[in-house]
Design goal:
3-stranded antiparallel beta sheet; Mannitol-specific EII, Chain A; 5-stranded mixed beta sheet; alpha/beta
């Protein structure tokens, strides 16, 4: 609990009234201790990546890890699935995990439980119709088992996003540690800035075409 109200208003350049409204609506992670709100730096960093899409590619460098993240390869491992059914976040998460091949030595019930536990703490919608369900704490320890699964929903659903846009796609993130999670999230956030990203999540494309498009975009990020 390293930040307070005044720190957040300055960091996010918002007034206290709006910040307190977000707290009441559980749209930002906060903890009330002795009648004062406190905020965890790591959670706020993740929240910023969730909700601030206009980020420079420098954000990718800020969370660089010893073994760089390759989003395309993580998606190749996790897979892309279309027409995921459901009317609520919990329903679509359950149906999405049912389609996934989860990491070795792990069962789907554990994955579902960890994703829903995080979702109940605060929705993982990041705006522009995208959500990024992930465990509150890493449930895998091996980097080789990391994966990202892209799930395209049959119908958009209310996900309590800050921009109030219904969610039509999920990136389910299973990472090995918090730092790598932030780097994966940064790459997804950067991907969402691409002008034609919505085309590849809301109109019919083959999985091969989607992966090729993401791979092409990712190959250019380091050169911007």
């Amino acid at each position: 609990m390293e930040l307070k109200i005044k720190d957040l208003t300055a960091l996010l350049n918002i007034d206290e009234k709006n910040l307190r409204r977000w707290i009441r609506e559980k749209k930002i992670p906060a903890y009330k201790i002795n009648h004062q709100y406190h905020f965890n730096k790591t959670e706020i960093k993740e929240w910023i990546l969730h909700n601030k899409f206009q980020v420079s590619n420098k954000i990718l460098e800020l969370v660089e890890t010893d073994t760089p993240v390759n989003l395309t390869r993580l998606l190749e491992k996790g897979g892309i699935f279309s027409n995921i059914d459901g009317h609520t976040p919990i329903e679509v998460i359950k149906n999405a995990v049912d389609e996934m091949t989860v990491p070795r030595d792990m069962d789907k019930e554990t994955v579902v439980y960890s994703l829903i536990e995080r979702e109940e703490m605060m929705p993982t919608a990041i705006g522009k119709g995208i959500a990024v369900p992930h465990p509150r704490n890493p449930i895998i320890a091996d980097i080789d088992s990391e994966m990202v699964t892209l799930c395209l929903l049959r119908q958009a659903i209310d996900y309590k996003a800050l921009d109030n846009e219904p969610v039509h796609a999920l990136f389910i993130i299973l990472s090995a540690n918090p730092k790598r999670h932030l780097q994966i999230l940064a790459r997804i956030s950067f991907l969402c800035q691409e002008g034609d990203f919505t085309t590849y999540t809301q109109t019919p494309h083959s999985n091969t075409d989607i992966l090729a498009w993401i791979g092409e975009k990712e190959s250019h990020w380091g050169r911007k």
